[in-house]
Structure formats: structure tokens, C-alpha cells
Amino acid sequence: MNQSNNSSSIKRFPCPSCGAKVSFNPEVAQLKCEYCGWEDVIPDSDEKIQEQSYEQYLNQSNIKLATLSEIALEVSCNNCGATIEFEPPQIAGECAFCGSNIVASPTSSDPTILPEGLIPFTIGRKKAREEVQSWINKLWFAPNALKKLAQMEKIKGIYLPFWTYDAYTTTNYRGQRGVYYYTTETYTENQETKTRTVRHTMWYSASGQVSRFFDDILISATFSVDKKRLDALEPWHLNKSLRPYESSFLAGFEAQKPQISLQDGFEEAKRVMDVKIRSDIRRDIGGDEQKINHSSTSYSAITFKHILLPVYLTAYRYQNKTYQVMVNACTGEVQGDRPYSILKITLIILFALAIVAIVITLVIRFN
User: Cα(133)–Cα(149) distance, rounded to whole angstroms?
Assistant: First the structure.
């Protein structure tokens, strides 16, 4: 594979006004000094987001490898194994995925398949905490440890890795088409003769071919967060929001490199595509019912992209178990795990039993 240097159009540097840290501010969509308020616009890139050939990747040719930025460092969490990338002067601190303190020393970032694009953060940490607080307020029997979560400063902005896949599919199939027909039958009920209409199915052999083009099948490339929760953060509006990769957007945030290989990601994409392909087959078979006995799919013109999508993520421990809460940093959608407070549930039950006892006592007394 070819290796290239990721030369950002904006070099990270201390604030020219006061020398403090400069980071990307989602609320103004530009670089901003957290101390004196100095701002600088990230110019629109002239580069186009390009699909990469999956076949060329398998042949290990013409694939760009690079670090996420020229000054990126990476560190691995000893507890959950997640590898996190960040830029100085930011420090790793706590792991965004499990909440553990990171004690390992950062090292220089290793090259990876260079992201073709990313969606920048569009809401700030304050707004993310407000969304988490709103989510918590809707939870019944949440322990106090969870209710304190929204006030904590440890919520982190992190870019998670995803693969997208395009492919043209051709599927040959064999199956059966079921067509309903109806007959009238006679039966006896309570010594009375009656008739009723009965539905039957006549089955016919069917075979054929269906084709479809799939565009931007989105597959998460991380196993550090719950997949169902992450999927529930959609939509991401890739067509409108995806921008060419620019390392300046990483300033003040963390990023994760893919944990799931491109090949394994494509196998997951095949499973996603198969759902729509089977729907196409059933539509092609027609009739009232369909059976698919066999299908065989070929894939061509396969392309992919490595992209980064923004989430706010925090993790906390309750009774020796780790819980995660995620926020879509574009829409504010919140997804998370929650424990139940056994103490609160017990108190509610005891309170309800007490009310029932009082009511029964009053009924007995006045009767």
C-alpha cells in the first residue's frame, strides 16, 4: 500500500493572541481559543470525497495510509482496550468508552487508511449535557449516580470510525409463487348445516434475476460501543453533511481508528444488502405469498470510504458494571444504557403497599 503524509491546510498552533490552546468550536464552526476568544475559519477544501476501490485494497495497491494529523498521538486503555487518538496539548485522561483512568503513555500515531471524509461536530458540550439531562429526566427509577451524570464535565467528544460501501449486485434465485384461491365448504355446527369460504394456496415454480445498486451502506468500525445503540443514533445525513477530511476538525476532540477490518465490514454490509435483495426477490416472484429456495449474489464495482462521525460519549460505573451514554453531535439524539435503582423501586413498592393497607383499613372501619 502507498503511504502518504496527511498535510493539513491549517497547522495546529497556540493562539497567536495569547498562546493558549486552540480547538474546533462546534457552535461557531471554526477554530477558537478557549481563553481569549480568538477565532479562525477552517476554509472549505478543494478536494473531493472519493470512493476507493475495494479490489485495489485487496491487492494492496493505491491505498493512502497516513496518520490522522501530523501531531496526533495515540494511547490504549488498559481496561477495555480501546485505542484513542488526540492532539496535544490535549491529554487522554479518562477513557471515553469505559470511564477508566488511562495510565499508559501516549505514543506516536500509527498510519491507517486515511479518512476520506468526516461530519464535524455541530453542537457543543453544554448542549450535549442538556440533551443527556433531558434523557435522564424521562427515566423512571434511575439511580442518583445516573442523575449526576449530566452535571459532570467528563463527557467527551470523539470521532468514531465507519466504513461506507457501494456495490452493484446481481442475484439469481429459485423459489415459489403462492396464489390464493377460495372454495366453499359445508360443515355442521349445533346440528345446523352451514357453509364457509376457505382460502387455499396454489404454488408455482419461479426463478429469475434481480439487480440493485447500493450506495453508502454505513457500517460502524468500532466494537467499543453497543452497535444497536450506535445504529439508533442515525440519521447522519451523509449526503448533506459529509465534508472532505481535514485534521483541523480534530483539534480539541478525540478520534478512534477502525477496530473492524475493511473485509469484515464488507461482510456486515452484505448482510444489510441481503435484506433488500430478498425483498426485491419477493417482489419479482409476485403472487400472494413467496418462498425463496435458493439465491446467489455476485458483487461488482465495489468501492468504500473510511469516514469519521461525531458523538459525545461518557461512561460511568454503577454496582461494578459499566454503562455508556452517547449523543449524536449533529442532531442531539441520545442513546444509552441505564441501571435501575433497587432502593427506589423497593421504596415505591413499600409506599404502594402502605397506600393499599390504608385504603383497606378505611374500608373496614367505615363498613
Answer: 8
Cα dihedral sign, 202-208-214-220: positive
Average confidence score pLDDT of the chain: 84
183 three-state secondary structure? strand
Give the Cα separation of 364 and 295 in Å (integer).
71
CB 265 within 8 A of CB 221: yes
* Residue of 89, 82, 127 lying closest to 104 (CA atoms): 82
Percent of the chain with pLDDT over 70: 86
Confidence of residue 157 (pLDDT cuts 50, 70, 90): very high
Q: Which residues pair with 102 in a beta bridge?
A: none
CA dist 284 and 164 (Å) reads: 28
Question: Which of the four pLDDT bands, split at 50, 70 and 90, describes residue 356?
Answer: confident
Tell which wins on pLDDT, 344 or 72: 72
The pLDDT value recorded for residue 20 is 76
Grid look-up 449535557 returns 129
What sign results for the dihedral spanned by CA atoms 109, 115, 120, 125? negative
Q: Which helix (H) or strand (E) holds 318?
A: strand 289-318
Burial of 147 (0-12, 13-18, 19+ CB in 10 A): middle
Strands 289-318 and 52-53: antiparallel
> Please, what's the largest Cα pairwise distance for the chain?
99
* Phi then psi dihedrals of residue 70, to 5 deg: -70, -25
DSSP letters spanning 182-215: EEEEEEEETTEEEEEEEEEEEEEEEEEEEEEEEE
8 A C-beta contact, residue 159 and residue 87: no
Contact between 290 and 281 (Cβ < 8 Å): yes
Mean pLDDT across 309-318: 86
Distance CA 7, CA 245 (A): 11
